Amino acid sequence: LTTVKTTVLATAEAPKPDPTPTQSTSEPETDTPSAPTDATTADISEPPGTICVFICNCSLTTHFVLDSDDTAVMAVMVALSSLLVIVFIIIVLYMLRFKKYKQAGSHSNSFRLTNGRADDTELQSVPLLARSPSTNRKYPPLPVDKLEEEMNRRMADDNKLFREEFNALPVCPIQASCDAASKEENKEKNRYVNILPYDHSRVHLTSLEGVPDSDYINASYINGYQEKNKFIAAQGPKEETLNDFWRMIWEQNTATIVMVTNLKERKECKCAQYWPDQGCWTYGNIRVSVEDMMILVDYTIRKFCIQQVGDVSGKKPQRLVTQFHFTSWPDFGVPFTPIGMLKFLKKVKTYNPQYAGPIVVHCSAGVGRTGTFIVIDAMLDMMGAERKVDVFGFVTRIRAQRCQMVQTDMQYVFIFQALLEHYLYGDTELEVTSLESHLNKLYAPLPGAGCGGLEAEFKKLTSIKIQNDKMRTGNLPANMKKNRVLQIIPYEFNRVIIPVKRGEENTDYINASFIDFIQMQKDSYMACQGPLQHTIEDFWRMIWEWRSCSIVTLTELEERGQEKCAQYWSSDGVMVCGDMSIELKREEESESYTVRDLLVTNNRENKSRAVRQFHFHGWPEVGIPSDGKGMINIIAAVQKQQQQSGNHPITVHCSAGAGRTGTFCALSTVLERVKAEGILDVFQTVKSLRLQRPHMVQTLEQYEFCYKVVQEYIDAFSDYANFK
């Protein structure tokens, strides 16, 4: 019970109070306590000219104590007082309503999904209102020339500002219903209970006769940049929804499917396989046959022919549908670099027919990776059209079409990384048919740059910051003596770890880095320095632990009077290194390299393995090889050995494990892609190497050598026409 008092000036003398004791519901004006009583029966004892307004359970009771001569004045005051009370009530109700909505939208923007529920918090329904669609100009569009500066600012202090920005995103920016998705008949069609399509943006299937709610599928229309319904964001099909998925593809006239998940991740089913491995399968009334499949570095392309079964017209038209399956998204987090995703997206844009229906994009839930792909696509289009990007605004808008689009702060940062990568370096992929003309441009001087295009390209690579703060283990005092060159120390995130020796601390370190970018093979290389005399045992422990069967040696033991590598193999008989024994079984000389077959035995385990060493002699002490023939031959020999031995990591070393080692890794990767796709990207290949180990491909000469070897390789083969 609340009492509001208003005192009005009055000249009349106050009437005497009723002698009967009364209890006031208003707060006492003296220190004497009084007990409350019912507002409708409380007697009021106030001086003349006082208005008492009682508010109780949303009802108003007003008592007037007036002099008879002040009626006109008090009529005005009553009206004003009533108006003030009404305004007060409206404000209170508004604040309560705002608080309710704010709480509804306060759920975390970042939770993981498992089959059927969210790991951290199981939400039985999608929160329908968080904030109004983006009128928040705290995060306005960014001009592209400010992108790098803003990225650096927001990534400081462990991405603190990026996390704040992501958490400022409205979870679901509008009030919207999910009635169709929540029907009992449709619950089994949803992979996750908290990721449901809104009624206003969901994809409607044609209803099947006699099948209730057969128009439902967990999929939503999503706008692109200035293109309505460019995409359909869908969950990964379940076994129960395979027929519905292909009905949607047919009815929407979709020609392109983008898949951004693997069928299983962390032993969990993320998506049912909705295509045949070979031949054809029938899903409902849609027959799907595999026409072609191409497995590439970061993704697989599958081409399907789809056809309606039992078409009453008798014509049975066929359609071609291309699936782009991105296979390089890790089980946790985001890809190491956005390069693969940018190339993938470029391929999707190239293939999608101009007059096709929406591009169907799906991961598992159809929000996290799916949203990330869609936002990158839209912002690249915006960057080209307006020279600015509006990630915050665009994510807000598409979250009004499907909840939780872009699900984690890591995905949000990854979007910015992809945009910055594209802005700084552009598209550096080349068709092999254009390599010669591209080299001519690289050798030509750049106006106003004071150097040629090739040198300018290499300068971009050398400007990549070496992250010295991420080399903790290699810089420990106990490990410093294990490094041949102090400027080349492996990063923590991809250093090769070897088993700890019993009873000895700091024995898991070796100066070696995993290099991961080869087709279908994680950790394809172990790039390492040439062993020192006191690290030979560590070297062989590494070979044994990681089951490496191929070693590529790109240095002589001594060059220009200095030791470059300790001899870690036996020339005759058996070499013993701790628990390891190395025996030379065969040695064969070729034109530019020596092949040594070694038998490596772990005496503690009483097991042996065959290891083949390829020792390249064609690299001069100063500069680079005179031609690429020897390098092409040794790369071919190593790849053949890998096919026979099971594709475990290839160990590659020179002296410091950077210059020649990086050149070999780069060339091996580039030539493999030339053979598979007829495409090369020397710049991005070397850039990826340098992000994984400092100073990989160390000199401009070595960088130029990569281009020259690729040109020699193309010129040497008569099937060059196949690349056209």
UniProtKB/TrEMBL annotation:
Return the SMART domains for the record. Answer: PTPc, PTPc_motif
Q: Which domain of life is it from?
A: Eukaryota
Per UniProt, the keywords (alphabetical) are: Cell junction, Cell membrane, Glycoprotein, Hydrolase, Membrane, Phosphoprotein, Protein phosphatase, Repeat, Signal, Transmembrane, Transmembrane helix
Ranges for domain Tyrosine specific protein phosphatases: 342-413, 629-704
Ranges where the Tyrosine-protein phosphatase domain occurs: 162-422, 454-713
Binding annotation for substrate:
D331, C363, S364, A365, G366, V367, G368, R369, Q407
Q: Top enzyme class of this protein? A: hydrolase
Which residues carry the post-translational modification Phosphotyrosine, per the record?
A: Y720
| EC number(s) from the headed UniProt entry | 3.1.3.48
Task: Please name the catalytic residues of this protein.
Answer: C363, C654
Q: Which GO cellular component terms, listed alphabetically, does the Swiss-Prot or TrEMBL entry include?
A: focal adhesion; plasma membrane
Segments carrying the region annotation (Disordered) are 10-44
Task: Cite the record's Low complexity compositional bias ranges.
Answer: 21-42
Q: Name one GO molecular function term.
A: protein tyrosine phosphatase activity
Q: Which reaction does it catalyse?
A: O-phospho-L-tyrosyl-[protein] + H2O = L-tyrosyl-[protein] + phosphate
The yes or no answer to whether the keyword Transmembrane helix is present is yes
Biological function: Tyrosine protein phosphatase which is involved in integrin-mediated focal adhesion formation. Following integrin engagement, specifically recruits BCAR3, BCAR1 and CRK to focal adhesions thereby promoting SRC-mediated phosphorylation of BRAC1 and the subsequent activation of PAK and small GTPase RAC1 and CDC42.
Protein name, entry field: Receptor-type tyrosine-protein phosphatase alpha
Q: Species name for this entry?
A: Sinocyclocheilus rhinocerous
Query: Which gene name belongs to this protein?
Result: ptpra
